[in-house]
Amino acid sequence: MEFKSKKPMTIMLICVLVLFGGIFLYKIVMGKIMRHFMLTRNMSVSVSTTVVKESVWKSQLKASASLRAVQGVNVTTQLAGMVDNIYFIPGSMVAKDTVLVQLNADTDIAQLHALEAQAALAKIVYKRDKAQFGVSAVSQATLDSDEANLKNLEAQVMAQADSVRKKTIKAPFTGHLGVCQVNLGQYLNPGDSVVSLQQLNPIYIDFFVPQQALAQLKMGQEVTMSVDVFPGESYHGKITTINPVVDSSTRNVEIEATVENPKFKLIPGMFTAVTVETGSATTYMTLPQAAVSYNPFGNIVYIVNQKDSNFSVTQSFVETGEVRGDQVAILKGLKKGQTVVTSGQLKLKNGSPVVINNAIEPSDNPHPVIKGQ
Predict the structure, then answer these.
(1) How much is the pTM?
(2) How is residue 231 annotated by DSSP?
(3) What distances in angstroms separate CA 14 from CA 25, 76, 134, 245, 294, one per listed residue?
(4) Neighbouring C-alpha atoms within 13 Å toward the C-beta of 212
(5) Phi-psi bin for 213: left (phi > 0), alpha (psi -120 to 50), beta?
(6) Cα→Cα distances 324→53, 61, 288, 366, Å
(7) 335 near 329, Cβ under 8 Å?
């Protein structure tokens, strides 16, 4: 009986041992298969590359700037009056002294005619008394009084004529008109704006630089500017004014440059980026910024090594310099002609095998074109 009761237990233990043995054997076999697969499988990382090259950069000073008209005003009225006529077309270009608006001047003209009549009579009286003074018919005091009265009336005529003239609002200079701000029949008070008038060619560029940069600037120095409104276009001008006063609160100096604007594409108030060439050309080794991995412990690039037809990478620390557009200057850590990785660095480590695929390359332009939205 005891033998019969132990037999099922023995069978169960044997089955358990066989089961665990099978699992263990399965793990060993699968491990060998995976190791063989990893050894035979190509684990190369696909990367893009570029060659370290030399670029010639000139020393530059960059600043943000705004555009300002050489002459720009809001045309206003000096005298009160009602608008009789509007002669201009908003947005058009007008020449100097073009009549823009006519205010009602009927009362002023009538007053002018009255004063002209009085001045004419005073002139007759003065001539008559002068003739009589020649024969001692009137006194010197009478003649002096006649002369003073004549000059007074002539002065009033001139003042009244000036008032009539001011009722005709003209363009003070040649320029482009803005939006009309008056209507027929509208009563204007002195100082009320009629229309904006801007002279757009040439146009000023106003920007600020720190006082430390003053030694690098001089009158007539060339500047280059661009605006995001017209991507890919650049405009060239010259420094025309360096403010002789440093702002005591910011320690910055205002600089004014002048640029030609024959097509009137640049308008006052536009934001622009200005570059001033300040020194001689310097040669740097340069890379696309995408080739450099920036880290707190140092900036890294991966140098590509070739052995037969196989490629691998070596990690190298570099010292970076000035950045221009998509390019960065490399001061230390690389040599001209070396091949470095420009994309795919996240998958790399020292000795990683790589496959080079330059179908898509990162931008490498020191003056990239900003596409409009």
Answers:
(1) 0.62
(2) T
(3) 16, 110, 161, 100, 61
(4) 1
(5) alpha
(6) 15, 12, 10, 5
(7) no
